[in-house]
Amino acid sequence: MHVEVRGLNKHFGNFHAVKDVSFEITKGHLIGLLGPSGGGKTSILRMLAGLETPDAGEIVFHGQVVNNLPPQERGIGFVFQNYALFKHMTVYDNIAFGLKVKKANKSFIRDRVMELVELTGLKGFEKRYPQQLSGGQRQRVAFARALAPEPQLLLLDEPFAAIDAKIRQELRSWLRELIERVGITSIFVTHDQDEAIEVADEIMIINQGRLEQKGTPWDIYKEPKTTFVATFIGESTLIENAAELKGFKPAEDSRSTKALIRPEYIEVGDRQEFKMASATEKGIVKHLQFRGSEWLVEVEVNGHKLVTYRSLEKETLQVGQEIAVLVHRAYLFNDERSWIQENSLKEDPMPVYI
Amino acid sequence: MRRLWIGLTYIVFFLLIAAPLGKIISNAFSQGLPGFRDALTRPEALHALMMTALVVVTVTVLNTVFGIMTALYLVRAEWLSSRLKNLLNSIVDLPYAVSPVIGGLMIVLLLGPDSALGAVFEHIGFNIVYAFPGMVIATLFVTFPLMVREVMPVLQEIGGQQEEAASTLGAYGWKTFWKVTWPSIQWAVTYGVILTVARSLGEFGAVLVVSGNIMNKTQTATTLVYQDVENFNVTAAGGVALVLAAFSVGLLLLMEWSKKRKEVR
């Protein structure tokens, strides 16, 4: 279903948890609400579900304001962080609950539950109680239970937080596939950026109650709109004064311009490896760490520590070795604005045409 | 040393429980089985036991309903400010701290014939003090914390998420209570019911003050025992006391059983 939120605000006592959040979600999309813990993501989700009442703002489903509808009437499915399975009911009864409440007829309930049991790979577990299931299985039950009454919108609160890393990986792709197959508009909350990037069609970054940016994972990664987004997504090193970096002398007065540099913006190696050697700076390898598929290189340039990765195919560096460092681009920001800038020395000032 | 402590424990146990119980039994049967039967089939004894039964049943029903409701509101209600909740929470414990006699006295002062409220009720022909309603109120006062204190921790432990989940699945209040909340708290409630029955069965002080101990009218089993002792009718006192003690033992066994169920859940 098409979801629209306008000017949403929520206070808990003196704490302003959600600040003027507005967004729109297209039918059928899978949205990730991403941000640090305590940033207001769960509050937004709970307000969408009707479990929390907004102080101001409108929630619109299908062009209809639903602010005054109780959760029972909103046609949503909610998956809780700790699943909140009915622990005195079997898997079958858990999944059937929403249908029984709606007084669907018995044979329909049976068919629907068995269909979901099949879909979620829980066949053979219908008679078990939640305590007799593993974390991943419980998650699937919670998921099937939420889907059973055929909701228009699926809300998931940190759906993988309580599952160990390996199974989480499997469940993520499973969930993604399943949501695609069912074709239901879904919003999930997470504080794990890998999860959001991997699963979501679109990400909304929420920080301190504010919606910082909304866009596809790639757009957000490529073009962070705010400083928070730039620091939050990906790894990065902060340089207090951007002018100290070679090739980033900003045109305007710039004492206060700072730079964020991601590992993949940096290239390191012997001076001869670079086409434009003049754009490089001298650096000293401070630390090397083997990361399985590449080297993590910590290099000191003009007193700044920069972090980057280096392919295993290239010649192995030594700690203390003097190398050339090229910063391809940086995310620059000051009090007024922020922008991405390419290294100005990378373009050959005096190209030689043959 | 250890043996000494064990021995001491046994002696204390014997002096405090076994010996008095033995004495009650021997008193009850001091005139043989017919004496015991006569003590119980006296009209005032039958009436007193019936009064006790009526009070126990009424109080248990009321206390169960209101106790569960209070516990639910204290734990779940978001529209109550947390300060108010804390205040109510401490008031629930008041009967633990106040002597039952004082509790009874408060009811007499508030609702007795000399008070404004009492006069109003008397005018419409509804006596509270020195009548059945007063005895129920007094016993309710004494037993009120028992149910609340049993149910509240369980509600806190299970949290509100299962109930929220039920609401997102379309279930309203009653359905959610019976299908989701009740199965989780039922053993705590059972335990609370047993405690309430035991406490109201044995309640003496508050009831004595409120009921006026009028024979064949407001006299309960405990106040009858008191009166029999005053009249040096030891056999009769022992007989009624033995019936009460038997019930208590029965309740104790039930309590153990329900405690086990409560833990297993």
Automatic annotation (TrEMBL), chain A:
Keyword flag ATP-binding: yes
Enzymatic class: translocase
Subunit architecture: The complex is composed of two ATP-binding proteins (OpuCA), two transmembrane proteins (OpuCB and OpuCD) and a solute-binding protein (OpuCC).
Protein name: Carnitine transport ATP-binding protein OpuCA
Matching SMART domains: AAA
NCBIfam families listed in its UniProt record: 3a0106s01 (TIGR00968)
UniProt xrefs under SUPFAM superfamilies: MOP-like, P-loop containing nucleoside triphosphate hydrolases
Keywords: ATP-binding, Hydrolase, Nucleotide-binding, Sulfate transport, Translocase, Transport
Coiled-coil region list: none
UniProt catalytic activity: a quaternary ammonium(out) + ATP + H2O = a quaternary ammonium(in) + ADP + phosphate + H(+)
Pfam families attached to this UniProt entry: ABC_tran, TOBE_2
PROSITE patterns in alphabetical order: ABC_TRANSPORTER_1, ABC_TRANSPORTER_2
TrEMBL record, chain B:
UniProt keyword Transmembrane, yes or no: yes
Top-level taxon: Bacteria
Entry keyword annotation includes Cell membrane: no
Membrane topology classification: Multi-pass membrane protein
TM region positions: 46-75, 87-112, 124-148, 188-214, 234-255
InterPro entries: MetI-like (IPR000515), MetI-like_sf (IPR035906), Sulph_transpt2 (IPR005667)
Domain ABC transmembrane type-1 residues, every copy: 49-253
GO molecular function: ABC-type sulfate transporter activity
Key words of the record: Membrane, Sulfate transport, Transmembrane, Transmembrane helix, Transport
Residues annotated as signal peptide: none
GO cellular component: a single term: plasma membrane
Pfam families the record matches: BPD_transp_1
Coiled-coil blocks: none
Localization, UniProt: Membrane
Physiological role: Part of the ABC transporter complex CysAWTP (TC 3.A.1.6.1) involved in sulfate/thiosulfate import. Probably responsible for the translocation of the substrate across the membrane.
Subunit composition and interactions: The complex is composed of two ATP-binding proteins (CysA), two transmembrane proteins (CysT and CysW) and a solute-binding protein (CysP).
PANTHER family xrefs: SULFATE TRANSPORT SYSTEM PERMEASE PROTEIN, SULFATE TRANSPORT SYSTEM PERMEASE PROTEIN CYSW
Protein name as annotated: Sulfate ABC transporter permease subunit
Organism: Paenibacillus rhizophilus
